Amino acid sequence: MPKSDNQKQKLLHIEQLFRTQTDEAHTVTVSQIIEYLEQRGIRAERKSIYSDLKTLCDFGLDIIKGDGPRDGYRLASREFELAEVKLLVDLVQSARFITEKKSRELIAKLEGLASHWDAGRLHRQVVVADRAKSVNESIYYSVDVIHTAIAGNVQVRFQYFDWNAKKERTLRKNGAFYQVSPWLLTFDDENYYLVAYDSAAALMKHYRVDKMLCIETACDSREGRGVYETIDVAAYSRKTFGMFAGTERTLQLLCDSSLAGVMIDRFGPGAAIRPWGSDRILVRVTVSVSPQFFGWLAGLSRKAVIHAPADVAAEYRGYLLDILQEISDNTPTRKETVTMTLPTDPILLLSVVNTQLRDQYATLDELAKSHMTDPQAIIEKLAAVNYRYDADQNQFR
């Protein structure tokens, strides 16, 4: 049989046939292979097909034949098994920093790792719409630039934006460029972050990659290696809630025993946990204390409280009281707050009094009058925990 002009492509077409048309439930016979090649202008004989299959097997393709006399051939294994491709598809779907458009493009490429039949099953399970996705299409370019800068040991420059109430991008620092030394890309709270050293502030900071614009490499060499090498990357992510910076503190959380799994999920299996009574546990963790941490803790309701240290516990109580103050339906103005009984616990009293002095009352006498109590009684109770009233600052310090 004379050879056709594209005969050299024969093996490539056979490989493509096996990758796209065969799987555990679908096989092809030698006759079907010949017909497939003919549709592409390639002539073939049965004898040559057997030789081609042997060549592909010798090259590394796992082509097998069924046990029955009429069974065809199929590709038995692939670089990625179907379960692995499904996992990758799920990761792309759930990643908020990947835009909807790019998610569909990536999923289409992942479907190419499976047979035509399995790709159809993957496509039916794909749900991208109505998810909270990034709208910054340049994030992939930004990630590539960051990796290039890290590999080249140079700094990066970029603009950084926030959203306003009109859903418009507003550039920070009036559009001026940030310039930092990139050290690490990390994934936290469904967002991609750059951990970089800010030379001007002399500390490590983190930036959401999907909020970067016009990123480019700079000529300056990276700085902050010594600071970066002191960071435990895994612990850094666990301690920093939502990647918002705060003061790093070691806390004791008194929790319902049912929250043991929640604590391990959040802080890792290395978190120090011990029983406290019959139905509670004491958890010792190091976190960056911030409103984001307090918000996470508040979501656990009464099942978790800050046991120590006392100043962080007081700060948390003040955080909760501020929220209650803001959402009170019975308070038309801050100065018309409904009178509530002052707490007897000195630390809690300190938090309540300082918060109200800051937000509602110009003097301690005014606060005491509102609560129908003696200001001297407040002074004496807080003096017992070494806090004195500063009239100029209108705060106990």
Description:
The chain is an alpha+beta fold and 397 residues long. The chain folds into five domains: 7-75, Orthogonal Bundle (Arc Repressor Mutant, subunit A), CATH 1.10.10.10; 82-125; 139-231; 241-308, 2-Layer Sandwich (Alpha-Beta Plaits), CATH 3.30.70; 321-396, no CATH class. It has helices at 10-21, 30-38, 46-59, 82-94, 100-111, 116-125, 139-152, 225-229, 233-239, 260-267, 291-298, 310-327, 346-359, 364-370, 375-383; strands at residues 63-65, 73-75, 154-163, 169-171, 178-188, 191-198, 203-208, 212-221, 247-256, 272-276, 280-289, 304-308, 389-390, 395-396. The strands form four sheets. Strands 3, 4, 5, 6, 7 and 8 form a six-stranded antiparallel beta sheet that branches. A four-stranded antiparallel beta sheet has the order 10-11-9-12, with helices on one face. Strand 6 and strand 7 (203-208) form a beta hairpin. Helix 4 packs antiparallel against helix 5 and helix 12 (310-327) crosses helix 13. The longest helix is centred in the C-terminal third of the chain and has 18 residues, at 310-327.
